[in-house]
## 1
Amino acid sequence: MTSADYLPILILILIAAPFAGIAILLPSVLGPKNPNRMKQEAIESGMIPFADARRRFPVQYYMVAVLFIIFDIEVIFLFPWAVSLNQLKIFGLIEMGVFLGILLIGYLYVWKKGAFEWE
Amino acid sequence: MSLPTLDFSLILPELVVLITALLVLIADLLWPRAASRGREQAPAVLALAGLILAGLLTLLAGEWSGATLQGMLVADALARYLNLVVLLAAALGLLLSWSYLPHFSTQRSEYYALYLLAVAGMLFLGKSIELITLFVSLEILSIALYVLTGFHRGQLAGGEAALKYFLLGAFSSGFLLYGAALFYAATGATRLADIAAQNAGGFYMLAGLALFLVGLGFKLAVAPFHMWAPDAYQGAPTPVTAFMSVGTKAAALVALFRVVQAAGSVPVGVWATALAFLSLLTMTLGNLAALRQSSLKRMLAYSSIAHAGYLLVGVVAGTAAGFDAVLFYLFAYAFMNIGAFAIASLLERPGFYAVQDAGIHAADGLFGRRPWLAVAMAMFMLSLAGIPPLAGFFGKLYLFAAAVESGWAWLAVAGVLNSVISAYYYLRVVVGMFMAEPSASAHLRLPLPASATLAVALTALGTLLFGLLATPWFQGISR
């Protein structure tokens, strides 16, 4: 590969960088501004960003977040498979069955272990 | 579009290990009351059966040849040999876990499922001939080992070890992936054979190979990328340490060997010199640090770093004889190192909240308490130090001979000098066992569970037999 082959990537960067900049700049010019203490926090996610690290937090959120990531990735994996299924035919179906089967075992495991119980 | 040809018979042992892992995972969902009926070791039995079946399938497979899964995995003599080393180490480590795990955990099926997944990752790593597959296999084994390292949840050191191992391991995976990306940039291929065929030179290949060396160097615990190893090896449950110190090294060395072969366009002198200096640094640093340890387990951890240095000598030699020597040494190392860790685990007093680590003097006076255990430990120590007629001596002999043959005499000399240094701390343990007064905790009972005794007996037998029958075995490898 020569350097010229990487030109599209350079063009992509040149487009993406201003785009990100505009997305930050425009709201600061056009948007309404009613600052309050919570809105001024660095990350507005419900967690207090600056506090003692050794404090209690609800572990259920963590379990749900981890499981979400796993099944989120599964869905991302399903999309290209669904598009190309008419070429992959029965082979693709079986392969995806194996993949889903393994995930299903993991799902049953966390279920039985009580990861979904909120209380 | 043509569909890929899949020959599952070539990856049968790996599939057996994977399926066993899944079975073990759901075993206590299917039979929730097994534990109360005195069958709490059912997951261990299942896991051991899976490992033995995989080992038999590897042995009985006949001549393996050819790539499968679209040229992502290869089943060759090298992979077959690696299978045997990893499965042996895994089975021995499992025997140790059998009696060790109940001290602190009731999560048996979780432990053994992760353990088997780590084994599967190692087996796949040894068969990978494609960059993405190689990376995924490495991650499968690493992630399982991160969790296993911190499996002793009541113990603070275990959590520290797991976190350190995870952070540095994730970092090193980044290096490896960057190396893979640069290989791809230079050649436009991810299969090692295609990369070799391109014969592309230049900066990308060189930088890619350098990053690969860093990434795999982390997994091998090669200095200066070894910083995680002493803490991880000390904090992990001892059976896990025993297994991972051998299995990870074996699998990563095979991967390293395959990658340096593929990067044929990079002049041999360049990477061999880099590896030679890494090897020199690793064995010197490992041995010097081991001299100063006050914990038996940490001393063995540093000794394991030093052995990574010895093993690299065979890769540096770059010849077939060099890598045959590595393979022989891996087998010898599996026996003597796991044996040493087995005895360290017997001398420990693991509890739910903490492990009373075996100090450097824990083995003092062992000969008076458990004579056969002391004799076995003496064999492991002497073999690790490289004293004939034990397996470790012949392993080093073949390694250093291969280095001299391919013009790396100074590295062989450095290896021999290092063995001399290492003899000091190995022999100190031996002297303590036979001559010193018993340690302060010696009045406590020293229980000998049957499974761990079996592991010690097997490793001692292996250390002795591989020494006595070294020549025919080595010829068997080279053939």
## 2
Amino acid sequence: MNKVVYGLILGGILGIFDGLTSWFTPEVRPQLLMIVVGSTIKGIIAGVLIGFFARKVHSLTLGILFGLSVGLLLAFFIAHMQGKYYFEVMLPGGLVGLIVGYATQKYGNSGLSAASRS
Amino acid sequence: MSWLSDETVSRLQAAGALPDFEGTRYRVMDRVGSGGMGVVYLAEDSILGRRVALKALDFPDASGELAARLLREAHILARLEHPGIVPVHDAGTLADGRVFYAMKFVEGRRLDRLDAQKDSLFDRLRIFQRICDTVAFAHARGILHRDLKPSNVMVGSFGEVLVMDWGVAKILPSSLERPSERAPVGNVSPPNDSPTAAPSETAHGEVLGTVGYMSPEQARGEIASLDTRSDIFSLGAVLQYLLTNLPGSPPRPLSAIARKAMQSDRDSRYASAICLGQDIGSYLDGLPVSAYPENIFRKMARWASRYRVAIVLVLTYLVARALLLLWFRR
């Protein structure tokens, strides 16, 4: 599995879990479905971006930092649209980015080797 | 009158047993091994300036039977051009009447000298897959090896895996060579492969192979009815060998694969070396293997093992997320 697809799938799965955890915040529970969809899309976008980065840059440290930054940035946009819950949205978002950044550096094929073989 | 010492006599005997490569392009450098049929020497090809391995009979063969068998081996090897089979460069007859052939000199170690500490299960299975590929290729060319065992497999310095010693190989009747493929090599006539007339062919009832690795039908001497499934049995025994000396007990699916390959009823074995290799590949990829039926728990365990990294990452996220939730609520 190449790094972009790996990032996409992992980002999507973590995005679903990220959205589902909002159930523990009673004030936003009525919008749970919207939150799950939104955070899944956010996770997928973050995963794809981080996957592309991992394909170009082979560095665990830079991968984790990039993942963290992308996760925080996307979460910031979401939180900014609501105008509140910055910590509650950005910390888990950053965590998703960090994990996907680590995973795409450690696992998945870069895709470049396959191209050079053909 | 003085008598020669035992040591001197044995040295003279050894020197006398050395084949005389005078007049050929080869200069013998060292003796590197011996088998049931001949001796293998390391030699230098004086024309091409490269090292080769020479296999020659260890004594002139008056009956011609061993010579024919050695030549037959050379012809079989020449017919099997594959990365897993050592290529033959030349064949001929020496001045003293001994037959020889020259092949690529392979540096490496034999599979029976695996390092229990260094060679992981993954490495062993990759080697085994390569052996299966090679044997499948030979079978596709209508040739049975009949003596597959760890000491007949060489693992080269660069990871190449070579199946050696095709001296007792059998050409299946359905694939006997066409006359055009049987051109003479050098000053040597090709051996007759016909099951009825060849002195080099094994007679029915004769047992060739290695105990512990040969199939029951081969051990019974049922030469005429041997088919590719006999080699499948030997491959199973090689796999069984590779699963020994591992820390802990071997994984059950792999033991099941070896058991299936080594069934005494040959109809119950794998249909081909390709199928056997594919089952090993499935195991390596975390997929189900045909020899090992799974219940729901085994399926779940395999699935968890296959996706363990993703599972660990998701669990890490969930634990961290739970800690964050607790922190926000504080």
## 3
Amino acid sequence: MSRLSWVKTALEVGVVTKKYPYEDVEVPEGFRGLPEFDAVKCIGCTSCANVCTPDAIRVVEDVGSGVRRLEYRVGKCIFCGRCAEVCPVSAITISKEFELAYKGEVVHVIELRYARCSVCGKPFTTSKHLTHVEGKLSEVIRENVDLCPDCKRRVSINSIIQSAGAVR
Amino acid sequence: MSLYGKSIWVFHLNTGSCNSCDIEILDVLTPYHDVERFGIKLVASPRHADALLLTGPITRESLPKVAEALMAVPEPKLVIAIGSCACGGGIWYDTYSTIGGLDELYRILREEYGVSEPPTVKVPGCPPKPESIIYGVALALGIVRQKVATAKVSAD
């Protein structure tokens, strides 16, 4: 008798099988899919690569061609969304794209031009990053912003020594 | 992919995964997603299988068994890597106890066993949605087109 009751339940429930991939499927609210990178907004600060747990976002410093390259590998990504969380300019958005199966290798690359130190000419960060930082600093410390860390240290120490000498 | 005929039989190979990808694979076999409508059937031995569903980052302990199972699958074979761990190592890409993904496995197979790389479909996700797994299988069968592609943007 109990087996017949299963038949009754099955008839009441009907067909539950989804027709995917022949029809679209709805994705739940808050689903984290493929991160999308906005190359126009990106300043190349590399904070996304710093927090990336599976090393899906990598920074390649290509000094020879004068570009910093940010490489995102879909196959390594665990879709945790930390990169979007830390991005200071909201260049990364987590989309709902889940159909990510691929053959071979899929890499998304963003190339950003270096800014060069105005004293020694060494590339130290991207020019967009420099512009972003410049906008955040106050007038007093903005003057040495285009120097690389080494030159900046030397210049500020020299200026401190000079001002101390003047007082003495 | 007419080479595989109309239905593929799959062997589920766990190579040290955390079991969430395995649970998603079981999900795909339930009546809600029902991959048997594509003729996909889970089999108990790699010798009966057309495709290998590989989950996990391939631990060093499981490596010889994985190589053996992969070589036991008759030609033409197909590998479907499920989850980020199998695709590229996931968060275990540099740990001492795993070899870190499929690419490394293929390198080892080529150099130590002299086996060439079988056709592979990778399904990233941690774990992938059941629909993504179906999409991956459909991509292997040639029902759908690949959506993601390599892109290079030079800003400023």
